[in-house]
Amino acid sequence: MQHSADGRSDGSTTVRVPQPGFLASVFRDLGVDEAAEPDADATGCPGGDPAVDGRAGDGPSVPGPAGGAGRGGARPSAVDPGPAAPDTGEPDAAGPGAGAPGPADPDEAVAAHARAAALTHHRTVTVQAEHDRLTDLLRRAALPVSAMDFESQLRHYEPRPYPADGPGTADVPEPRWEDFAPAEPASADPAAGPSRRLLDSGYQRELAGARLAHQRALREWRTRRAEAGSPAADESRRAHEAAEEARARAVREYNESLEECRRAYRLAEPAAVESLLERALAAAETATQDLPAACRAVFRPLTRTAVLDLDLPPLDLVPSLAGYRLAPDGDIVPVPRPPADRATDYLRLVARLALRALQAADAVDTDEILAGVVLNGWLREPGAAEPLCLVSVDADRDALARTRLLPPETPYEERDDEGVYADAEQDEALVRLRQLGAAVTPDPYDRAGVRPAARAGATVPAASDLSANEFAQLVRDLLTRGGIAQWSVRLRGPAGLVATGEGAPGSALPGRWVVWASRGPEPVAAEELVTLAEAVDEESAERGLRLTTGGFSDEALDLAAEDGHRHIHLVDGDGVRELARTHLGLPLAVGR
Question: N or C: which end of the chain has fewer CB atoms below 10 A?
Fold first, then answer.
């Protein structure tokens, strides 16, 4: 406060801002906790805590610029809480925004980003492991299949000698200590006596070991000598000889049963052929035992065709993601693979499994009993009403012989522009499968199935259950047994075929023939007989044969009875079944 010359107050007030730390030192002298001030500010009292204000009772209180009572302030910035308080450069504890959060810690942000990056890398490594497993499956599915023919399944007996056989016990001399005693150590002093050599610790250890070995050998020699000719030894020898005789008998009986199966196989008995095929298919799965791909076989003696049902692996076996990436906002985002790449990988695996099954069936058929093989690949999903056919192959023996059935040595060809995954049209396994006329689904993940070439059903199927190759083989066998040779197929499709053949003179079907065979319940019209007659003229043939598993219309029967078409012969469904019964011994079942 200013005073005039006469000592009176002029009414003006001078505010002195204490130096930093001054009030804190006063608080410490008075025994007041400095941390109590924010609580006092939070009470909303403009004058603060009376207990705090009373600590400066020995001096006058300092009024603020607005006439309010001054605070006993713990900090210089708290001199005036009002809006006109001077800026001291420190934040006001009771001012606006005192409870607002401070700025984010940059170290914590960096640590959170590092954790997200590490998690992204871990998930990407997991996806890469799935890709590596798929690559390994493709490699193992392309391994060669071991032949499982009858020769490879034969067992051989090798007798095991009796352990006690050998030189007679009486001829074996008693073990001598001289044969076990170690050599004495050389002495540095030739004049030293043997007592000094005995003090060598290494020699003493060798000597103790030699004594133990000699005692053990001597005990065994005495035991064998005592047991020689005893009843226990004779009983042991008889038990050994009985066990060896049982082993020899088991091997002999197994080989005899295998030879019986071979005779049944050569007679094309279904049980024997199916047993051999399923053994070969099971042996082919040993390279990929962790991959569920069982295959069952049904043999049809009527057409000498094996129908294989292959269970395909689940669709989720192929990875759907390429990895993970870290977004700018810190989120971990999955990177999906193109659907075409995923479908191609699945079809590549399916093609290798199908080729492996076909190769196993072809390699085991050393006696050429099979005329063809039909393979259907089925996707069996939980909850589905029925399985979905994704691949179907209908191949005869000639097609199997022309195609290299062994899967490619390398599961893929890595290119600079394509990486690991090549286009499906360039995959070698799929190319070989399509060379056999296979029907392959365009998109397995869209559940786009294909029509199976034939279903594994009864061993004597109906005509509608036959595949295209089976029907062609059936017609050829029927007419070949009737006398037609030099069989040549000109056209063939799912509904039938057109072929030519030569019948030997004096046979049931002499001369050159044009054969048109079809299957289906619809009756053959007269126009088809006219077309067959034209084909006979073009081929310079003598006769034509129209064969169908159905029947003929009345117009067709009337046309065949005319003089101009008497060289056209007709065989309906009943005639086909009768020919099958006569020439093959197995008539066709009645169509459903």
Answer: C
